[in-house]
Design goal:
Helix content: 25-40%
Number of domains: 2
Strand order of the largest sheet: 1-2-3-4
Number of strands: 11
Largest sheet: 4 strands, antiparallel
Order of helices and strands: EEEEEHEEEEHHEHE
Shape: globular
Number of helices: 4
Structural class: alpha+beta
Radius of gyration: 17 Å
Length: 205
């Protein structure tokens, strides 16, 4: 994921931003880390593959970036809650995609095979929402628990597009390499070996 370029302090919270403009801290990827341990995280998940010869009405969400965005958010927020705010127990999680509306429809795509191949049949005109619960220790620790929480939230968003689940990750906290872009496979495999996460080449029926 992209790095943050600036940090700010607000009332009882820290703010990190990808924007270089102090008066627009939430223009790009950003996060807020609240004193009590809660927080929010936003990342850019548009497809990186733009074809000037193909014009589409809808904005395109890359499913690799969607899952990575959820995973990065859970990891950062979990570490903040446990290690900085000394919080513990269960955390309520919620994810959405924004902006979206009648004038900004969105579609889910994959760039693993064909460029911007449709990854779900539905085109959305209302913000989707996914909810889950996870143990804060699982979120703050690289491992199967962290990946399983990512699966629950990412699958909820995939279901809004008409896809049964997020195929990149598994419900028990594993990775399916066939659904990740090949440029990420080496890094994912190395991280999984360190974190004790199972990696497979399984393909969903």
């Amino acid at each position: 994921m992209s790095n943050f370029s600036s940090t700010l302090v607000r009332y009882r919270r820290l703010v990190a931003s990808g924007s270089s403009q102090a008066h627009l801290p939430y223009r790009y990827h950003a996060c807020e880390l609240h004193q009590g341990g809660s927080g929010v995280f936003a990342s850019i998940i548009d497809t990186p593959m733009v074809d000037p010869h193909v014009q589409r009405e809808e904005k395109l969400v890359d499913n690799n970036y969607l899952v990575l965005g959820v995973a990065a958010a859970l990891r950062m927020l979990g570490i903040h809650a446990r290690d900085r705010a000394a919080a513990g127990g269960l955390a309520n999680l919620r994810a959405t995609i924004w902006p979206i509306g009648e004038e900004i429809p969105i579609a889910l795509v994959s760039n693993v095979g064909m460029r911007n191949e449709q990854a779900g049949p539905a085109v959305l005109r209302e913000p989707p929402s996914a909810d889950a619960v996870a143990d804060i220790d699982d979120l703050a620790t690289d491992g199967p628990g962290q990946v399983a929480a990512t699966y629950r939230l990412a699958s909820g968003l995939h279901q809004a597009f008409g896809k049964p689940e997020a195929p990149l990750v598994t419900s028990d906290g594993g990775l399916r390499l066939r659904y990740w872009h090949y440029t990420a496979n080496r890094h994912l495999t190395a991280w999984a070996a360190t974190a004790g996460v199972e990696v497979s080449n399984d393909v969903l029926p």
